[in-house]
TrEMBL record, chain A:
InterPro entries: NADH_UbQ_OxRdtase-like_20kDa, NADH_UQ_OxRdtase_20Kd_su
Residues reported to bind [4Fe-4S] cluster: C47, C48, C113, C143
Subunit structure: NDH-1 is composed of 14 different subunits. Subunits NuoB, C, D, E, F, and G constitute the peripheral sector of the complex.
GO cellular component, one term: plasma membrane
PANTHER family for this protein: NADH DEHYDROGENASE, NADH DEHYDROGENASE [UBIQUINONE] IRON-SULFUR PROTEIN 7, MITOCHONDRIAL
Keyword Metal-binding: yes
Membership in a protein family: Belongs to the complex I 20 kDa subunit family.
Membrane-spanning intervals of the chain: 38-57
NAD recorded as keyword: yes
Cofactor details (free text): Binds 1 [4Fe-4S] cluster.
Coiled coil: none
Protein name: NADH-quinone oxidoreductase subunit B
UniProt-listed Enzyme Commission number(s): 7.1.1.-
Lineage of the species this protein comes from: Bacteria, Bacillati, Chloroflexota, Anaerolineae, Anaerolineales
UniProtKB/TrEMBL annotation, chain C:
Gene3D superfamilies recorded: 3.30.70.3270
Residue numbers spanned by region Disordered: 184-206
Annotated GO CC locations: membrane
Record bears the keyword 4Fe-4S: yes
GO MF assignments: 4 iron, 4 sulfur cluster binding; metal ion binding; oxidoreductase activity, acting on NAD(P)H; quinone binding
All copies of domain 4Fe-4S ferredoxin-type, residue ranges: 73-105, 118-147
Keywords: 4Fe-4S, Cell membrane, Iron, Iron-sulfur, Membrane, Metal-binding, NAD, Quinone, Repeat, Translocase, Ubiquinone
Full protein name: 4Fe-4S ferredoxin-type domain-containing protein
Length: 218, 580, 206
């Protein structure tokens, strides 16, 4: 029996008991509750945010999925919908907000920009995808994704949540969760996890320049 | 010359100031070049004697081959008439220009932007700091010899895409494996980040200047960049004394997407879909302004039907934008979401039309140089007619009944965030903000473009210059838009929608042009410089909400914190356009 | 009277609320879950509930709707795929964010290029759905898709679309964009006819 089947058909129920008891697993109830009350953080970045608002409004209305409680504070939010272009000036704030969200937390990258940079990727202050800094659960294609495709993405997230189990979830594990180091704005954006690489490459660049200079001087 | 004449005729600057000013005689250029030392005197004369009271746009151009930086000023008269342009030229290695802030306070943010992106230093500017990038950023990105980390070639199309297009992500080619670049020999550990110290210092400087003798306990409060009422990633830093605002600084750049740098690599046509993403609530009017600017350079004229459809789209866009603006203003006042829901409902019906004609709800990419991308189908026309003739007037009236007389709205909005007409003009406000202050200036009337001279409509304006008047002006403008729409739909002719053949490479002669429209949020202008190549040499957006933000601090000073949110809502900013 | 404004505003909200039920009573069952009901809710005299119950109901997209592009292929009589694209490169040149990569086929024997793409990539993490590629393709080979349900768990695997993933049959194209398909087919037929007429009939020469 595969993992999936085991979860859906846990026990044999005798025929005569079928109408009186329903057997389910704790996981199932837990996930059912969680996936139908995903509170997004009220947080819009760019054009995609307008479509996110449209999704919250009357025509698409994501309160049908228990998601209408948009929380302005990260402390009360379950999912961060990164809706728009992530810039270098903004990413320290986004990482900080992510660190402040309590577990279990999810991230949806909405639109081309949040997924991988988008049309402005080549620009000098655009981060090539929010997943360079924070883990992303669901990616939604489009520029902008229409409200229906955002809903599709939210349903995809619900499916993911339904696959999870209390036993293996990271938020009940003993090990303390580590916050993501917050990027620093220097001459350009600096990821603290990459300081070594930055130092190496800058030194190499300098070496190349001095070598060039010498060639020119000769 | 009589007074009336000096106030209405276009002055011949080179005959008035023969020693200081010469005409700009480069092919395709207009206006005058002013000697840097005499800039202030000339600007003052233009403002005081010749009536050019509103400084519309300040920007810079990097003429790398000539080793010069040029600062371009566009001014106009709020009584109407065409725009007037003058420039100063400074050497690239020491670009210092006197600041126009003492004459036109509206230049403040724009000069900061020119300093940030081009490295032009404005002498006498009260607060010359970086604005779109951050303190400590290496270089001035709009200089032509400055290359971004993902730099491939000077201009698109890039050769690596075809015929041997090996797909790869840009980060895989960068030595740092990301969109970053550092000065040679840079050591990250030695860096002390600025952490907003410069920003806070400028705030406290104000306080000390005002009360040098007292040491009060003023506190600094940050609103944003993630804040539910800042309409996106906008940040305000307020210096408070109790609830009272002593001073306030807008902080932006959190959505700076390098629109202008990318646009200078793009071909002229490739910029069209990028303009959609400026004011993303009103993409059609961005298309409109850009198409006008390029058409001016190319000297083409769209056919009749295209002109009508353009006007229809632009006015629908205005209605969408105002519905959202009013809805979100109410959000900011605390009426959480219901008014916006009603506004967004109407928006949905209008974006259905956009989707039908252009293919996308928001990013329409619908205008082409000399026409439109595709025709408006009879079904779309029918649907628009149904909306315009029946539903929209009804719904605007309903909105009016719903909100206008609401006591809470009136109490929160009347007399709050007042901007006098003189201040509004001096601060370069445009659009509903300017009109609500009692200056009935509308580009559609002042310098009619496209076919706006054929329609009957009134320019809405207020008298008090407060939040409530801005709200009323928007409501009235929606009604006027419906009026224009009715006329345009009635007269919509049959015929072609494109002059010439659609082409993906357009020939744009060398020269400069400034195309402007009355966008929903103010005067939206595109300043283009072409050198005859397929890509613009300079591409600058005069973003109305960016410049309207100059008046945020003067409007908020002395008010309460809670009002700032409403004042910001009444300016109706869109971050895509503020930060570009 | 103070408070009148608020009251009349509240009445409007109430009206919207009541309308929902009145409209439900009036229209009956066909209001939800039917194409007619959806049409009613998006028409200009919609009242009451405005919500489209995605995913049970879907708002139909208009023909011009554009999401990401796809490549069209014709099915030959023997069932083989005939890719329309000639790898002329125009779409790659016109694409604003430069997210199209095309590798032209080369004849292994002669080293000369063959007019068909060996590979064709679109990076949907960069694509701005602008439709320029479809607008300027001279061979009607690239078109904008209507499929917007493309959420995924892993962008590195799924977001660079290759030729195989991009190819869709002309019948699919005809289904999602019937008017443009018919117009293009008619234009093509007219061109063929003109060509045939211009060419002197075989066997009559000399
Ligand atoms: S993906 Fe497109 S619509 Fe969304 S934020 Fe980026 S540019 Fe704007
Ligand atoms: S898709 Fe069209 S434009 Fe692009 S290479 Fe193929 S034939 Fe040329
Ligand atoms: S839709 Fe636009 S961005 Fe996307 S591949 Fe086509 S031309 Fe490029």
């Amino acid at each position: 029996m595969s993992e999936q089947e085991r979860r859906t058909e846990p026990y044999e129920i005798p025929e005569e008991m079928k109408s009186q008891v329903a057997v389910t697993t704790l996981d199932k109830i837990y996930n059912w509750g969680r996936s139908n009350s995903v509170w997004p953080m009220m947080f819009g970045l760019a054009c995609c945010a307008i479509e996110m608002i449209a999704t919250a409004a009357s025509r698409y209305d994501f309160s049908r999925f228990g998601m209408e409680v948009m929380r302005p504070s990260p402390r009360q939010a379950d999912v961060m919908i990164v809706s728009g272009t992530v810039t270098k000036k903004m990413i320290p704030t986004i990482v900080r907000l992510y660190n402040q969200m309590p577990e279990p937390k999810y991230v949806i990258a909405m639109g081309a920009c949040a997924c991988g940079g988008g049309p402005f990727k080549e620009g000098y202050t655009v981060v090539s995808g929010v997943d360079r800094f924070i883990p992303v659960d669901v990616y939604i294609v489009g520029c902008p994704p229409t409200p229906q495709s955002l809903l599709n993405g939210l349903i995809t997230l619900q499916k993911k949540m339904e696959q999870e189990s209390i036993a293996t979830s990271r938020w009940y594990s003993k090990a303390p969760s580590q916050p993501i180091p917050i990027p620093v704005l220097g001459p350009d954006l600096m990821d603290p996890r990459k300081f070594d690489l930055i130092r190496q490459q800058s030194a190499a660049k300098k070496a190349a320049q001095t070598a060039d200079g010498e060639v020119e001087n000769e | 010359m009589s007074d009336l004449q000096t106030q209405t005729l276009v002055p011949q600057l080179d005959t008035i100031f023969p020693d200081w000013v010469r005409p700009d005689d480069r092919a395709g250029y207009q206006g005058y070049i002013v000697e840097t030392e005499h800039l202030l005197a000339v600007a003052k004369a233009l403002r005081d004697t010749y009536g050019y009271d509103l400084l519309s746009s300040v920007t810079g151009v990097d003429y790398l081959p000539e080793g010069k930086l040029e600062v371009v000023y566009h001014v106009f008269r709020t009584t109407g008439g065409p725009i007037f342009v003058y420039k100063v030229q400074v050497p690239r290695d020491n670009p210092v220009v006197p600041s126009l802030v003492p004459l036109y306070p509206g230049a403040e943010l724009q000069e900061r932007e020119a300093y940030d992106l081009l490295g032009i230093r404005f002498e006498g500017h009260p607060d010359l700091r970086r604005i779109l990038t951050w303190e400590g950023f290496a270089g001035h990105p709009l200089r032509k010899d400055w290359h971004e980390p993902y730099f491939e070639e000077e201009a698109k199309p890039y050769k690596s895409r075809w015929p041997e297009g090996q797909v790869r992500r840009a980060e895989d080619l960068n030595p740092f494996a990301d969109n970053v670049d550092y000065p040679a020999g840079f050591d990250p550990e030695s860096l002390v980040p600025d952490a907003d110290d410069t920003l806070y210092k400028t705030l406290f400087r104000v306080q000390q200047a005002q009360h040098p003798e007292i040491k009060t306990d003023a506190i600094v409060v940050n609103l944003g960049p993630q804040h539910p009422s800042t309409h996106g990633v906008f940040r305000m830093v307020a210096l408070l004394e109790g609830e009272k605002i002593l001073d306030l600084k807008p902080v932006m750049g959190y959505l700076h997407r390098n629109h202008e740098k990318i646009a200078e690599r793009n071909t002229f046509l490739q910029n069209m879909p990028f303009t959609d993403r400026l004011d993303y609530i009103a993409s059609m009017s961005n298309n409109f302004a850009y198409a006008l600017a390029v058409e001016k350079l190319m000297g083409v004229q769209p056919p009749e039907r295209a002109e009508y459809i353009r006007v229809i789209m632009a006015e629908l866009t205005r209605i969408v934008s105002h519905f959202i603006a009013v809805g979100f203003l109410l959000n900011d006042l605390g009426a959480f979401f219901t008014p916006s829901l009603y506004g967004i409902k109407e928006r949905e019906l209008i974006v259905d039309i956009f989707e039908m004609v252009s293919g996308s709800r928001m990013m329409c990419n619908y205008f082409r140089f000399g026409g439109l991308a595709r025709d408006m189908s009879p079904e779309a026309v029918q649907k628009t007619k149904e909306l315009v003739n029946d539903r929209l007037p009804r719904k605007i009236d309903e909105f009016d009944r719903y909100l206008t007389e609401n006591e809470i709205v009136r109490q929160r909005c009347e007399g709050v965030g007042v901007l006098t007409p003189e201040d509004a003009i001096a601060l370069s406000a445009t659009g509903p903000v300017l009109r609500a202050s009692g200056v009935p200036y509308d580009v559609r009337r002042a310098e009619p473009y496209s076919i706006y001279d054929r329609f009957e409509f009134d320019v809405a304006y207020g008298l008090h210059g407060d939040i409530y008047d801005r709200y009323l002006v928007r409501m009235e403008e929606m009604r006027q838009s419906v009026r224009i729409l009715k006329q345009a739909l009635r007269d919509l002719p049959e015929g072609p929608i494109m002059t010439g053949k659609p082409a993906y490479q357009v020939r744009v002669p060398a020269g400069e042009s400034y195309g402007r429209v009355e966008g929903p949020k103010g005067e939206l202008g595109f300043y283009l410089v072409s050198n005859g190549k397929p890509n613009p040499w300079r591409y600058h957006v005069r973003a109305p909400t960016f410049i309207n933000l100059t008046s945020l601090a003067p409007m908020s000073r002395g008010g309460k914190v809670a009002d700032v949110v409403a004042i910001l809502g009444s300016i109706d900013i869109v971050l895509g356009e503020v930060d570009r | 009277m103070n408070g009148k404004g608020i009251l009349s505003g509240l009445l409007i909200t109430l009206r919207h609320f009541v309308d929902t039920y009145l409209e439900d009573l009036k229209v009956g069952r066909k209001r939800y879950g039917t194409a007619e009901g959806i049409e009613m809710r998006r028409s200009s005299d919609t009242r009451g509930i405005f919500t489209i119950q995605y995913p049970e109901e879907k708002l139909p997209v208009p023909e011009e709707f554009r999401f990401v592009p796809f490549l069209v292929y014709d099915v030959k009589e023997d069932g083989e795929k005939a890719v329309r694209c000639t790898s002329c490169g125009i779409c790659a040149k016109v694409c604003p964010p430069q997210c199209i990569w095309i590798e032209r086929s080369v004849d292994a024997a002669t080293g000369k290029p063959i007019p068909t793409p060996a590979e064709f990539f679109i990076d949907v993490d960069v694509c701005m759905n602008c439709g320029m590629c479809a607008e300027f393709c001279p061979f009607d080979a690239i078109r904008m898709d209507h499929d917007y349900e493309m959420a995924s768990y892993d962008r590195h695997k799924h977001h660079i679309l290759n030729k195989e993933r991009l190819l869709k049959p002309a019948s699919y194209y005809a289904e999602i964009r019937p008017t443009s398909y018919r117009r293009e087919e008619a234009e093509k037929a007219a061109k063929e006819a003109a060509k045939a007429a211009a060419r002197p009939p075989a066997g009559t020469a000399a």
